[in-house]
Amino acid sequence: MPEIEDLRGQTMGGDRKRSEIHHIARHHSASNGGDVWTFEEYWREQRGWETGGYHEIILRDGTVQLCYDHDVITNGVANHNSTTYHICVVGNGDFTEEQEHVFDERAEYNLDRFGLSTSDLLGHNEFSGTSTGCPGTDMDQVRSRLDGESEESDSEGSSDSDESGSSDDSGDDLLRRGDSGPEVEELQNDLMEVGESLPSYGADGIFGQETEEAVRNFQNRADIQVDGIVGPETRAALEEEMSGQSGLPRGTYRQGSRGEAVRKIQQALEDVNFSPGPIDGIYGPQTEDAVRRFQEVHVPHEVDGIYGPNTRAALEDELS
Ligand SMILES: [Zn+2]
Questions:
Q1: What is the mean pLDDT of residues 139-153?
Q2: Are 87 and 110 in contact (CB under 8 A)?
Q3: Which end of the chain is less congested by CB atoms within 10 angstroms, N or C?
Q4: Would you say the pTM of this structure is higher than 0.70?
Q5: Secondary structure (3-state) at 214
Q6: Pairing assessment for the beta strands 23-28 and 84-89 based on DSSP bridges
Q7: Distance 53 CA to ligand 1 centre (A)
């Protein structure tokens, strides 16, 4: 998993928001080095921009600078910015293997979360009305590489060992700032479950400043070492606190959610005879279907398969 430097909220501007994303654009920086801070100086002073160019920048060493949240409109491709997510790879027509590897990971992750396919990934100069050498690479090659990889990961995904294997490549079992992925999302849900808040980004699977602060708050409250890193001690404290809570989770959970809170929802559904399938802490199609069936009977004005306050109240009624 790539090292992610979460700079959202520290980069310039970012005030214009949107609700739809149709494309991901790949750019190069047309420089041999630099990072968001050197680029910002150029954008501000030479171009007079108020917001930067890219949502993510992949540095020469493969580090990802996460500059803006996905709903922010940046300056990447004129006339296409309101629906495009921009990723820049630092380099001038020549990129390191590490950068390409990280680009593939970030492109896949983002295409997936925006519900887009590989054909929606374009080089800057593939957008209509553009005339530029950017992104300095053959996008057909990039796309076919991604298609090949997603087939590979699909077949890996069909084996049951995928879930347990994924924690191995992180090198240790610690979660800390810069990490990303489903384990981080699960941690974030658990943190919210025990009452910590993640007001700006919620459970987005990215361990940034906000998540680190929530971990520190929790560690402080649990009276354990306050270092913002999640290891065995913090996990144990989290589990202890969650197991002590008898009530149903208070957040909003939907397909894709994971963690102890989801397990509780599943157990409650099972207890009121709307079986969600395996009680595994993963809010998949079967859990969604169970929530929907429960809602049809008990919350008929809100049959959406999403667990929220009304469904919680109805479940609590049924359980008592
Ligand atoms: Zn470009």
A1: 80
A2: yes
A3: C
A4: no
A5: helix
A6: parallel
A7: 9
